[in-house]
Amino acid sequence: MEPALIFRRLFVAIVIFAVALPANATDHIVGDNHGWNPGINYTLWAGNHTFFVGDLISFRYQRNQYNVYMVNKTGYDNCTLEGALGNWSSGKDFIELNESKRYYFICGNGLCFGGMKVTVFVAELPTSPPPSHYNNHTSGAQSILRQFASTVPGILAGIFTGIWI
Ligand SMILES: *[C@@H]1O[C@H](CO)[C@@H](O)[C@H](O)[C@H]1NC(C)=O
Ligand SMILES: *[C@@H]1O[C@H](CO)[C@@H](O)[C@H](O)[C@H]1NC(C)=O
Ligand SMILES: *[C@@H]1O[C@H](CO)[C@@H](O)[C@H](O)[C@H]1NC(C)=O
Ligand SMILES: *[C@@H]1O[C@H](CO)[C@@H](O)[C@H](O)[C@H]1NC(C)=O
Ligand SMILES: *[C@@H]1O[C@H](CO)[C@@H](O)[C@H](O)[C@H]1NC(C)=O
Ligand SMILES: *[C@@H]1O[C@H](CO)[C@@H](O)[C@H](O)[C@H]1NC(C)=O
Ligand SMILES: *[C@@H]1O[C@H](CO)[C@@H](O)[C@H](O)[C@H]1NC(C)=O
């Protein structure tokens, strides 16, 4: 295979890769460089961020000193852990925001009362098309392209078997 041809196919592969993959998920570090600690207004922090399905929220804190509980609204309002939906304590916890809904996180060792609580609303990805407004041909083709291009082996196979050019 000629080098020029390889470069052309590589270019096409990169373009398809960039177009077909969803935008990178954002990691929202709670409290930014202040982390997960007492005395921080996390309402202000949350107001400065926009959360989409698939994003991560991450808590950075002194391990063994604090922790993170995912609770419901009652737990958030009252700083209680009943019916907690999850808990983390590694000191560097990454939590995937899988659903479009309001999430509630609190510190489980009493410091919730001191303000170690944060709630975020996670919105649907703006690029996810409402299915009813799209014809099936377009979305079908997009989904096949996405599936194919989202595997690096698929890309490499495409370059070297030359199916695109
Ligand atoms: C955080 O800041 C908001 C907006 O200034 C304010 O309404 C809220 O009371 C503050 N929360 C705390 C716990 O200080
Ligand atoms: C919100 O973001 C703006 C712009 O980056 C910044 O100036 C401001 O300090 C931020 N506020 C908080 C509470 O993080
Ligand atoms: C939780 O707090 C609310 C007020 O924010 C109160 O009305 C309610 O009774 C409390 N629930 C429990 C279970 O303590
Ligand atoms: C939160 O969970 C507790 C315990 O399961 C439950 O009693 C409470 O009603 C729930 N609150 C909400 C708002 O769902
Ligand atoms: C914390 O999470 C573990 C599993 O990850 C669970 O077994 C445990 O019951 C949870 N603790 C509370 C208080 O929810
Ligand atoms: C989000 O989804 C992943 C994989 O589907 C799962 O491992 C993870 O536990 C989920 N996270 C939450 C907070 O539900
Ligand atoms: C798209 O496919 C669904 C079933 O998969 C069908 O119900 C719907 O009528 C189709 N829409 C169009 C515009 O062909």
From TrEMBL:
Instruction: List residues of the Phytocyanin domain.
Output: 26-124
- Kindly indicate whether the keyword Glycoprotein belongs to this entry: yes
Molecular-function GO terms, alphabetical:
electron transfer activity
Identify its protein family. Answer: Belongs to the early nodulin-like (ENODL) family.
Q: Which InterPro entries match?
A: Cupredoxin, Phytocyanin-like, Phytocyanin_dom
Ligase listed as a keyword: no
Q: Which residues form the signal peptide?
A: 1-25
Q: What is this protein called?
A: Phytocyanin domain-containing protein
Q: What does this protein do?
A: May act as a carbohydrate transporter.
What's an example GO cellular component term for this entry?
Answer: plasma membrane
Query: What keywords are annotated for this sequence in UniProt?
Result: Disulfide bond, Glycoprotein, Signal
Q: Name one Pfam family in it.
A: Cu_bind_like
